[in-house]
Amino acid sequence: MSLYLNVVEFGPDIFGVREAAEHYFGCDPKDLSVPQVAWLIKLLPGPRLYYKQFEKKRLNKGFMDNLNWLMRHMIRKEFIQESQYEPVTATSLFETEQPTQVDEEADDDGSGSP
Fold it and tell me: Do residues 97 and 104 make contact, with C-beta atoms less than 8 angstroms apart?
């Protein structure tokens, strides 16, 4: 698994977790947040296809819903604690600061609006 994660493509000319963490979030893999890790996991089926969302700094609704589902699944499987779950909005993953509590509550109304 370690070998795979160090050579797999995470986007155009982005190979391995270290390069991906630096490229997408400007940090080392050990400093990634849970939503950032979920993003990297969900990139693997089609990193070049999903790269467009990074370029636009905006997730489409389906991808956003899928990331939130993955993190809730990680809680159910006890890979993370519920306190580590930070729901993503269409733009929160690529913001330099995490969304405020007010932003998260606004997204909980089911409208998908940040």
Answer: no
